[in-house]
Amino acid sequence: MNEDLILAVLSDALFAAVAAIGFAVISNPPRKAILISAILAAIGHSLRFYLLGHTSLDIATASMIAAFIIGLFSMLCAKWIHCPAEVFSFPSLLPMIPGMYAYKTILALMQFMQNPAADRQQLIVDIFHNGLTTLFVMFALVIGVSLPIFMFHKQSFMMTRLLKKHND
């Protein structure tokens, strides 16, 4: 790997970690959970960044793989910190929400409705392309983070029981 790639991946990880800290602080979790959310966001987002730039994967598939990794590490950290895995995984996923695609969908939709002289065929293509990309990435994030819970249901269920005993 060259220096430019390493620098790009590290800067992507840093920005994702900062965003995850912001999203995590909103829900007032334990302090350890904020740091773990930042680390998981950095890992997941930089993995997606690498997969998008250096493999032939599309954004939805790369997002699902990154969300799956976040889900796995969230389950491991849940045992370590004694918090539900969702405390770590949801703030870590939020930096991967495809906001630009959603924005472009709404922008094209507004242009379609306001400007009858515009190239309507291109606007319809933009609406569907960006809208479906947004939906597929969101579904991929949900499926990716949920798969570890379904795959390791017994461990997840046991963790819930342990947390319940610990809090009583």
Concise synopsis of the structure shown:
The chain is mainly alpha-helical. It contains 7 helices and no strands.
**Total count of strands:** 0
Give me the number of helical elements. Answer: 7
Sheet having the most strands: none
Proportion of beta-strand residues: under 5%
Helix content: over 70%
Gyration radius (Cα, Å) is 19 Å
Kindly, what is the distance between the CA atoms of the first and last residues, rounded to a whole number of angstroms? 50 Å
Secondary-structure element pattern, one letter each: HHHHHHH
Note down, in words, how this protein is organized:
The protein is mostly helical and 168 residues long. The chain has one domain. It has seven helices and no strands. α1 (3-26) packs across α4, α2 (31-54) packs antiparallel against α3 and α5 (99-114) runs antiparallel to α6.
